[in-house]
Amino acid sequence: MYTLLKTEGSARRGRLTTPHGTIETPVFMNVGTLAAIKGAVSSMDLKEIGCQVELSNTYHLHLRPGDKVVRKLGGLHRFMNWDRPILTDSGGFQVFSLASMRKIKEEGVYFSSHIDGSKIFMGPEESMRIQSNLASTIAMAFDECVENPAPREYVERSVERTTRWLDRCRKEMDRLNSLEDTINRKQMLFAINQGGTYKDLRVLHARQISGMDMDGFAIGGLAVGETHDEMYDVIEAVVPYLPKDKPIYLMGVGLPENILEAVDRGVDFFDCVLPARNGRHGHVFTNSGRLNLNNARFETDDAPIDTTCSCPTCRNYTRGYIRHLFKAKEMLAMRLCVLHNLHFYNTMMEEIRDALDSGTFREYKVQKLAMVRGKL
């Protein structure tokens, strides 16, 4: 159940009650594709750095270790020792990212495994069954994510197929949740809005899926080729046509400035691999702009990554030491930077919620944008 607590313009402060705990929104979900954050970050670490929701991927876990293995081990929560909410992506993004290795048909998508080339089929029903075996808190509907730009005729057909797939997902999820041996019989289902950068198709699809019985709604198919301004235009067009009493999730986005702009336009949920991926390469986010710790200027720098940060890394280690770890190819370098970046994102979301609570989000947004762009 989603409760809208407060608004400031289009920005929303909310709370989603789930079978695995309450989520305060706006929220950033920390991405653990294979039930682990890349960079040697544990589930205990996630709690220390303020993570509310962990996100894992249906397609990847289906391949390795296998969703049936996870089911035998009690579902994702027991498997990875995480007792807070988990969202599983449906595998729909892999329809986009593995374009050279798949064929799309009405019944679903035929993949060649990126691991060993073996043949895999995934349709709406298969995606729901896999996610039910994983027993995540929130399952995502199976959809097609198209690249931007894409021909309008193709996007129209894709959106229509995604809507038909959504209906099949809902029916299969209801069936699975009715079974006695289902691990999480209260598994939630989010629909996904598609339509490329064609705002009229986006609005049409939003109208169609809003009438269906869903626990939340996502805006998919963005951050895949369009400009930031195009992305913001799509969000502005779509949000007014999605239910006000359900959470809205912008998939795969993004930079701190993207999140701030999307919150201002009414988005509640975010995820992105960026903070962990950047951290593994020594690129860190701070309240005075982004830094590349591989640069020579940090060789003898005895300051923490960010003097305003209270993460485990900044409390204990210097820029100079972390640069040394990268040059020595020590795994600890990645771990420390990923911890810092995820803490930065989770803390920013807490600041956003506090600003919305106090009615000062607009002022906060202006200041934070200047900070992350290194202009303060």
Please supply descriptive tags for the structure shown above.
2 domains; metal-binding; TGT-like_sf; 3-stranded antiparallel β-sheet; Queuine tRNA-ribosyltransferase; transferase; globular; about 375 residues; alpha/beta; TIM Barrel; 8-stranded parallel β-barrel; EC 2.4.2.29; about 40% helix
Question: In percent, how much strand structure appears in the residues?
Answer: 15-25%
Shape: globular
Number of helices: 15
What's the story with the biggest beta sheet?
8 strands, parallel, barrel
CATH architecture of the largest domain: Alpha-Beta Barrel
- CATH structural class of the largest domain: Alpha Beta
For this structure, the CATH topology of the largest domain is TIM Barrel
CATH superfamily caption of the largest domain = Queuine tRNA-ribosyltransferase-like
Q: List the uncertain runs.
A: none
State the total count of DSSP E strands: 16
Percent helix range: 40-55%
- Computed Rg: 20 Å
How far the N terminus sits from the C terminus, by CA atoms, comes to: 39 Å
Q: How do the strands of the widest beta sheet line up side by side? A: 4-5-6-10-11-12-13-14
Helix vs. strand class: alpha/beta
Subunit structure: Homodimer. Within each dimer, one monomer is responsible for RNA recognition and catalysis, while the other monomer binds to the replacement base PreQ1.
Active site: 89 (proton acceptor), 271 (nucleophile)
Pfam family, one: TGT
InterPro entries: ArchSynthase1/Queuine_TRR, TGT, TGT-like_sf, tRNA_ribo_trans-like
